[in-house]
Automatic annotation (TrEMBL):
Extent of Basic and acidic residues compositional bias: 15-32
Domain of life according to the entry: Bacteria
Record protein name field: Oleate hydratase
Gene3D superfamilies: 3.30.9.80, FAD/NAD(P)-binding domain
Molecular function as annotated in GO: FAD binding; oleate hydratase activity
Provenance organism: Chitinophaga caeni
PANTHER family, per database record: 67 KDA MYOSIN-CROSS-REACTIVE ANTIGEN FAMILY PROTEIN (AFU_ORTHOLOGUE AFUA_5G09970), MYOSIN-CROSSREACTIVE PROTEIN
Chain residue ranges for the region called Disordered: 15-43
InterPro entries, per the entry: FAD/NAD-bd_sf, Oleate_hydratase
GO biological process entries: fatty acid metabolic process
């Protein structure tokens, strides 16, 4: 019989664990030395209970920032690190938790959502956590994951109006419209090494025909990419979401929650952590970390905070841990309403000086292992956009929305199925209506819509202003013009509350970067410090998702505590031949790709026939290959007699 302290810990003490294995570098071989799972071997075997190498009963954990990443740190410290929940404290500069994952307001003053994150079924870390968090509305023992599945399993998502133009007409969105050379460019990008893409932009690599294609319109508006953003990040996205490519045009690959993401995820997770005993200290700004640095490593000794205008130093002992969310995509947000445009007081000369950025800058000044924050916060015109939340009573806008809706907007089911993009809008404006009510307690006659634009620095087509210079009513006018209901603008304004958010850093994590610009989760030499969020380096995951935040949190916990657990790499569907073949056909708008006919003849009637993509085959595409194969067969016959 095992003795936990003696036998198990003896096993664990000598075990060497790569807490963040990299599937893009691993050759999957079974050898006597291979005791841990393959890097992207997802599933139940990865759900073992972590065994700490030592007791952390006396350790304290200080988490700077209470966004989804910080909350995930607390969860994994408790579940896998066995650290007492009452020893975990959040230091939050705001008066509310959630960070950039927000959702607030009411029907009288207007609801507000600054942004949302794309959701996917392959978010292994996010669902690993939320399978254990009690559901928001369902009774015990159901979890947030159970609630999410119940909603989506019974209400599939898709769009019937992904693109519109010409004053509200639905545009054909069935095709990607990629030229052969652009399909080849995508394939070449997938084949390129990540190390070869430092500081290269999307427009540096792709042709004008690619940038003008429907494919790029679908992609850029769904994920908020600009032409000048990082080609490396685009490559990572293409690998990450390869399995979803055939649902990119109609958004059938997406899954959405019942409510906004704050109420769906932050609220139940906060309730769980607080019930366990975790403490959240609001209105506490962490300015810097006092670190002891020598040849043996880097150790945090004090947290330097501002509390109510007073400097307060929080001591950090040798067996304590500090986890910091670096950077912020929503810092310095400027707000507007129906009658007022956002007052923008920040430019490139004043950017990056707010709390979330200054803490990272102060760390970067201590060592190069903490990265280069200035790469991400010093180019406002290339990292900013504005979002708009509409709180709508019945009006001409709601009636127009019904023409684009999959279901009655008031039914509680999928409405637009994701964003609808106005392709002939100077602002490249997009809008969406998710399942309603979008907030718990939202009145039955109210709908919440969300609007954003990628080209906000251009003049509008109807309102001859740049979008950030516009009041909420003027943005409504621009939207109504493109929907063909400008003659009913007064009715729409009367029944719509507008709240605008100008965010100077909202796509800053997409800015072109090179190796070393972002720190690792546990930077080299750090003994009790980890960094989490959207501005740290992971092996293969993307940014701007809740999954990436939770991934960094999990890596932080496993590495700092040196647990016998690994964080599996991203879901391995990018290596699945079924999805690779499907992607080849999808990129070619359902037409036969080179070699498909031959492949079908080889696999017809075999066990593997089902791996082939759905669709007809144009035989002439394979004539050259067939000829060469027949020549090869004749040559073999000649040799063998």
């Amino acid at each position: 019989m095992f003795n936990l302290d003696k036998d198990f810990k003896a096993f664990a003490k000598g075990l060497k664990v790569d807490h963040e294995p990299d599937s893009s570098k691993e050759q999957q071989r079974n050898t006597p030395e291979k005791s841990m799972p393959f890097s992207d071997q997802i599933g139940n075997y990865q759900r073992n209970k972590g065994l700490p190498r030592q007791s952390f009963d006396d350790s304290k954990v200080f988490i700077v920032g209470s966004g989804i990443g910080g909350m995930a740190v607390a969860y994994y410290m408790i579940r896998d690190g066995h650290i007492p929940a009452e020893h975990i404290t959040f230091l939050e500069q705001l008066h509310i938790e959630g960070g950039s994952l927000d959702g607030s307001g009411n029907a009288k003053e207007g609801y507000l959502i600054r942004g949302g994150r794309e959701m996917d079924m392959t978010y292994e870390n996010l669902w690993d956590m939320f399978q254990d968090i009690p559901a928001l509305e369902m009774p015990p023992p159901y979890s947030v994951l159970d609630e999410y599945r119940l909603v989506n399993d019974n209400d599939s998502n898709y769009s019937k109006a992904r693109l519109i133009h010409k004053k509200g007409l639905i545009q054909d969105f069935s095709k990607f419209g990629l030229a052969k050379k652009d399909q080849l460019a995508i394939i070449k990008l997938l084949l390129k090494k990540k190390e070869d893409l430092d500081n290269i932009t999307i427009e540096d690599y792709f042709s004008e025909s690619f940038l003008a294609s429907n494919f790029w319109t679908f992609w850029r508006t769904m994920f908020a990419f600009e032409n000048w953003h990082s080609l490396l990040e685009l490559k990572l996205y293409m690998h990450r979401f390869l399995h979803a490519i055939d649902g990119l045009n109609d958004l059938s690959s997406l899954v959405f929650p019942k409510y906004n993401q704050y109420d769906t995820f932050v609220t139940p997770l906060r309730n769980f952590l607080k019930a366990k005993g975790v403490k959240i200290q609001f209105n506490t700004l962490t300015k810097d970390l006092d670190m002891h640095v020598n040849t043996e490593g880097k150790v945090v000794k004090e947290l330097i905070t501002d509390q109510g205008g007073k400097e307060v130093r929080i001591p950090v002992r040798e067996n304590d841990f500090v986890i910091v969310t670096t950077g912020s995509m929503t810092e310095d947000t400027a707000y507007g309403d129906n009658k007022n445009a956002p007052v923008i007081t920040i430019d490139n000369s004043t950017s990056g000086k707010s709390a979330g950025w200054m803490l990272w800058k102060n760390l970067a000044a201590k060592s190069t292992v903490f990265g280069k924050p200035e790469k991400f916060c010093n180019n406002i015109e290339k990292s900013a956009w504005e979002s708009v939340t509409l709180t709508c009573k019945p009006s001409a806008l709601v009636e127009k929305l019904k023409a684009y809706a999959v279901n009655d907007p008031y039914s509680g089911k999928t409405v637009t199925g994701g964003i609808i993009t106005i392709t002939d809008s100077n602002w490249l404006m997009s809008f969406t209506c998710n399942r309603q009510p979008h907030f718990p307690g939202q009145p039955g006659d109210v709908l919440v819509l969300w609007v954003y634009a990628l080209f906000m620095d251009k003049e509008g087509d109807y309102v001859k202003k740049r979008m950030p210079m516009c009041t909420g009513d003027e943005i409504l006018a621009e939207l109504c013009y493109h929907l063909g209901i400008i003659d009913q603008l007064d009715d729409v304004i009367k029944n719509t509350i507008v709240r605008t958010s100008f965010m100077p850093y909202i796509t800053s994590m997409f800015m072109p970067r090179a190796k070393g610009d972002r720190p690792r989760v546990v930077p080299d030499g750090c003994k009790n410090l980890a960094l989490i969020g959207q501005f740290v380096e992971t092996n293969n995951d993307v940014v701007f998702t809740m999954e990436s935040s939770v991934r960094t949190a999990r890596i932080a916990v496993y590495e700092l505590l040196n647990l016998n657990k690994q964080v599996p790499d991203i879901n391995p569907l990018q290596y699945d031949i079924r999805h690779l073949l499907k992607a080849a056909k999808t990129l070619n708008d359902g037409k036969t790709f080179l070699g498909e006919g031959l492949l079908r003849r080889v696999l017809k009637g075999t066990y593997f026939e089902h791996i082939l993509p759905v669709g007809d085959v144009e035989e002439e595409q394979d004539s050259f290959l067939v000829e060469k194969i027949n020549q090869f067969k004749d040559w073999i016959k000649g040799i063998t007699g």
